[in-house]
Amino acid sequence: MPVKAKISNSTVKTLKPSDKRLNDTDISGFHARITDNGKIKYYLFYRLNGKQVNYLLGADGQITPAQARDLAKDKIAEVTKGIDVQAVKKDAKEQVKLSKLSTLLAFVDQKYAPWLTTRNPKTAKQAIHNLKVAFPNFLNLQLSAITAWEVEKWRSDKKAADLKPASINRRLNTLKGCLSRAVEWEIIDGHDLNKVKALKVDNSKVRYLDKGEELRLREALRARDAKIKEQRNSANKFREERNYEQLHDLSINTFADYLEPIVLLAMNTGMRRGEILSLEWQNVDLTNRNLTIISDNAKSGKTRHIPLNTEAFQTLNNWKLDSGSLGALFKGQNGKPLLEIRKSWETVLDMAKIENFRFHDLRHHFASRLVMASVDLNTVRELLGHSDLTMTLRYAHLAPEHKAAAVNLIG
């Protein structure tokens, strides 16, 4: 008789050949099968349009029980939408035979990139770019030739080049995800990259601005703003002398351009750069002083609402008067949503003489200020949009008075 239990590392380890099958108690149709020689594979049984399918999710060792569970959830979601995932897999396999997708580059360009684009068009292009930039020496390798040994050599080179462990882990996870998709589509039988364990990352080191740095950053933003306005006034004076059409008078604006409001918003909301640049005015409620990050633009995939403190509210209110209230909050010179602020951001950091500080660190700055103001970690988690407290705990050491209060309870 099949065994019934939640499929996990512990239950899979106790599975015996005589059990034949382990049915998951949480996800209908999700099960594991074990052969007489002890090999285990994960499946999802589903019905669609009268058709019964036992969909192979992967073999134990190539994917973990948790990964199989997540994949089962994804496939159930697709089946619910009327997609026959087995037929999709079969089609992908046939396309491989026709196009001879044997190298990483061919697979990425012809199959993986189009698939990513259908799932998340906004991030697919950047994800593929990052994959190619991170692994240029792998692009012309056969998929089956990308082994744990080759990846370990790549990782050793990156560590020697002082690439941070967190960055190495992110790039490696991108490659693992790509090859796992090739396994799911039966383009390759499997890969052994799960043998390459993630590097330990010290998340307790958080970069945020000290009081002097924050003061210099604010002064640099205002100085840059004043310089742009001065240059515009000079240009208009030049044009007036020659009877040319005048450019918009920036002196009547609070902000000369997008950079200062973007930075102030990041410092006061903890939003990621992508979340800020994807904001539209319809997501901003100045009446109730809050804004909404819709699920499509959130890293977590979940909608969240962020209250606006006084500075954030005044910043957005003034920016609305400066730029209008239609479409994207921040637009480039072509009128389209702004995609990048790197050059202007680096310029203002140089002006402020601030080193080793990324735009993303403004998010850490926001969280750190909250924790040092005795805001509880769960509230910080909700504001940052973390799915659990694991990531938020990196800020816990900034509230030593909480620990002192705790031990004093028994003192």
TrEMBL record:
Domain (Tyr recombinase): residue spans on this chain: 234-408
Alphabetized GO MF terms: DNA binding
Record-annotated Core-binding (CB) domain positions: 106-183
Pfam families associated with the record: Arm-DNA-bind_3 (PF13356), Phage_integrase (PF00589)
Biological process terms in GO annotation: DNA integration; DNA recombination
InterPro entries in the cross-refs: CB, DNA_brk_join_enz, Integrase-like_cat_sf, Integrase_catalytic, Integrase_DNA-bd_sf, Integrase_DNA_bind_dom, Integrase_recombinase_N, Phage_Integrase
Highest taxon of source: Bacteria
Keywords associated with the record: DNA integration, DNA recombination, DNA-binding
Keyword Cell wall biogenesis/degradation assigned: no
Cited CDD domains: INT_Rci_Hp1_C
Family: Belongs to the 'phage' integrase family.
PANTHER family referenced in this protein's UniProt entry, alphabetically: PROPHAGE INTEGRASE, PROPHAGE INTEGRASE INTS-RELATED
Name of the protein in its database record: Integrase
Taxonomic source organism: Paraglaciecola hydrolytica
